[in-house]
Structures are given as C-alpha cells and as structure tokens.
Hints:
The chain is mainly alpha-helical.
Amino acid sequence: xxxxxxxxxxxxxxxxxxxxxxxxxxxxxxxxxxxxxxxxxxxxxxxxxxxxxxxxxxxxxxxxxxxxxxxxxxxxxxxxxxxxxxxxxxxxxxxxxxxxxxxxxxxxxxxxxxxxxxxxxxxxxxxxxxxxxxxxxxxxxxxxxxxxxxxxxxxxxxxxxxxxxxxxxxxxxxxxxxxxxxxxxxxxxxxxxxxxxxxxxxxxxxxxxxxxxxxxxxxxxxxxxxxxxxxxxxxxxxxxxxxxxxxxxxxxxxxxxxxxxxxxxxxxxxxxxxxxxxxxxxxxxxxxxxxxxxxxxxxxxxxxxxxxxxxxxxxxxxxxxxxxxxxxxxxxxxxxxxxxxxxxxxxxxxxxxxxxxxxxxxxxxxxxxxxxxxxxxxxxxxxxxxxxxxxxxxxxxxxxxxxxxxxxxxxxxxxxxxxxxxxxxxxxxxxxxxxxxxxxxxxxxxxxxxxxxxxxxxxxxxxxxxxxxxxxxxxxxxxxxxxxxxxxxxxxxxxxxxxxxxxxxxxxxxxxxxxxxxxxxxxxxxxxxxxxxxxxxxxxxxxxxxxxxxxxxxxxxxxxxxxxxxxxxxxxxxxxxxxxxxxxxxxxxxxxxxxxxxxxxxxxxxxxx
Length: 609
C-alpha cells in the first residue's frame, strides 16, 4: 500500500536542498545587486522552517529531544565547518602572507583580542545578573574570536571586490582564520580557574591552575598544533607537487586535495588532543606558502562552491537551533538587557581598539580602512563552537548551573545580532549612497554646464577621436621602449601601463612604465606571474588613455571594455589604487600596500604620462 514516509531526515533534506536551490536561482540578484548576506538569508530560512515557526527543520527532534545530544552534534558540525573554512582561508592568502604581515597579525591577535575579551566580559558582568566576573570571562571568551565563515561572506562578492581594497580583505580573513584557533587560551584560563574549586580536579590553587593552563593549552595545544600544521602543510605541498609533475594525480583529486587535507588534519590532531582548528589554518598557509597550489586552482570554483554550501547549511542550522524560549525572562535576563548588550558589543568590542592601535597595523594605513576592519569583526560559527567546548568542560554537578544555563542563550543572541548587523550594513550603506546620488543629480538638474563645479576632469570615452589622438602621442613617445602590434586587421593600437611597484617604493620620482601594446578592443592577456604568481597585474590600462581620476568608494581602475556586472575577480582586481579621503593608496600585486600618496602627488604622477 502506498503511504507517506515523513521522517525528520527527509524533511531536513527537503528544506536544505530546496533553500539552496531556490536562493541559487536568484543568487546573483540577491548578492550582487541587493548586497544581501548569504549568512543572513540562511539564518532567516532556518528560523522560518525551524521549530519556532513551520517546524520542518528541527535538529532537536533528530536526537529525540535530548539537549545534550544536540550539543554534541552542534560541536562536531561547527568543528568540521570551521576546520574547512580556516584551511581554505590559509590557502587563499598570498605567498608567505604570515611572514610579511606579522606585525599587523600580532597586533590584532594580541592586544586587540585581549581588549575585546575584557570589554565584552565587563559588559556581560554589568548587564547579565547573577554571574561573577570570572564566569563572564568564560562567556566573553566564546565571542572574542572573529568568525571565518561570516568574514568570508563579507570579503567576497562584487561589492567587496569593487569597494574594499584587497589588502583589507586579506587581513580580515587572515585574522579570522588565526584567532578562531587562538580562542582556546582565552577560554581555558577562565575554565581552569573555575575547575580548581572542584573536588575532582587535581589542581586547587591559582598558581597550579595557571601552570596547568600554560602547559596544557599554550604549549600542548597552541605550540604543538603550529608545529604539526607546518609539517603537514609542507609535506603535503611537496608530495602533491611531486605527484602532479609526474602526472600521477587526476584533475578531480587535485582540486579536492585541500578538503581531504582538512579531514586528515582534524582527525590526526583531534586524536592527539591538540588545537585542530589552529592547526588547519597553519596547514593551509604552509601548504600554499609558495603560492603554487593557489595559482593552480585559482581558475576553478571548487573552493567557492564548498564555501557557499557550508555557509548556507551551517547558518540554516544555527537559525533552527536558536534558543528562543531562553531569550525572555531567563535567569533575570530580560529582552532589553540582551538588546543593549548586543548593541554595545557591536560598537566597542573591536572598533575602538583597532582605531587606537592602527599605527601598529601597517596593513591598514588609513583610518577608513581601520574603521572598516574594526567594525567587521563578526561573531558567528566560532562562538557557537566555543560555547559547546565550554559546556563540555564546565562541571555538571549543580555548582555552575547558572553559568551553564546562561552561556548558550547569551552567545546565541550575540551571534544573531552580528548576523543581522553585519548582514544589513552594506545594503543600508549602499542604499544611502544611491539616495544621495539621486538627490545630488536632481539638485543639479536645473544648472547649466558652466554653473556646475566638478573637482574631477571629464573622462575620455573609450574609442573617441581624442582618446585615439592621445594614444598615438603616447605611442610615439614610448616607441623607443616598446613595440607596436597593429593587430591582424590593422586596427589602431593602445598602450597598457602598469604602476611599477619597485619604482614606487623608492622615494624618488614616480614614473609610468609602458609594458606592452594592445590592439584596441583586444582582450588583454594575463601577465606573467613572475614576482607574485597567481595575482593580476597592477593598474592595467587597456584601451589607452591616462590613468583615470580617483573615484570615491571604489578602486582606481579603468574599464577594460564594455561594462559588465559579471566581470571576473581577476578583472576587478586590476588597477587597485584606492582613494581614502584625500590620500591615494596603491597596492602591490598581492594586496600589500606599496605606497600612500596625496591627491596632488597622484595628479602629478598621471601628468608625467
């Protein structure tokens, strides 16, 4: 007899697959036009289909209503997702990034993380009744690390690639990958100070608890995981290159090697009891230290596909397991306390300290970049993971009942706040920018051309006679240094210029270096990857003409051809010079800041050409 077989597994698969499929159909419009966050959409879907609403996606029902089993599943899911994300983060960073940007990373992972930890704990101590400051330090440590999953969603997409400099995106994802593994020392110092009061614990003094923290966490988990990660990444890089050069590995296995390496690292380091999350990040950096694997896989979207699937799945899950019944009057935690706590944490957890210490963060040379990096330090999957770690370690004998019952709703609410705030900031900011542009356009509608004041010269249209004449003059002036390729059909030629990073580092005059001749309307070829493999050339000018004037809120790069919203990441990365207030920031091939110029210096530079 035919009958329905409605099981939790079937419902979960239907919801997850249906959400990814439906959102995928409009994903370009939602993400690239509305600038909506993937994490926000998935969380909203989890709430709608979760037990609080439709009830089709209920993780608690999967385990028969046992909350301890749900916590165990949540721990393993978040552990795997974060491990994959931080290893992919390490792979995506430029060549030897940790060595080059060590000062910026030390500042972000040291004093700024400590300040964020203490400030968040103080806010919790003042707003959450019935907790000691030591207990608040444990809760605050869970939300101190920035989340690599949310950071990836912020630093990818058309808006980020058009409006956020590459070096800012790199430092945000690098910090999020590293500090997710470095959250253990902050969490366990509070846990050991709590456990020393337990009769079953072998240590009962402050000195003993600190000593236990040092050799168990700092030495065994942090230092050992760094050593293991460096070795695994190095060996994997050599072995994979050996197999690839001798045609022993096929294309599919080559692309999937990174995710297989994640599972291997999580398993081996997990068996040893060391910090598997930090180890995955170090493996990713060591594995692609010479940029070879990143260059080989940059034209394939395998990692991006995995990122999208993991991000959608994990935030769908988080939306479904939100403890809504604990967001009311739970241990005296009324809704207004949670709202105020969420707002204050978003404002003072990171932003002030990044601003204050920005002089020791060379990667962020301007205050605008420091504000952006300070504000976008999201709380997400990492906070859920560390919350589950704390619940596993905290005693369940009734001595810390309030802490065990409070830590989960407080941290989940902060995760929800971060998803909403960081998910709507860019759409709202973009909306205000468009509204302001419309207002300015309407206010100038009745003015004549002579009455309007513009600080930027009018650009020459591509293919115009003036541009062609100017191109020919540039061609005559550089004929001694370059060769002319008139093209197969005798079309006119245009010069493509690069800003020479080596010349710009010097304090001497800045000059333009002609690097080749391209036929007009010809697609520019990819430049050789000699100094920084896998990274497009800087400030490439295809179609001729002078370097265009800087535009606020966007990179200083010309159009390669007809405008296309679906331009590739490589095309969008060309010509990364950014206007930050009255200063122009010029990046190197891999997103590193080469020089900061005033607007006058930039204008003088372009006039030399």
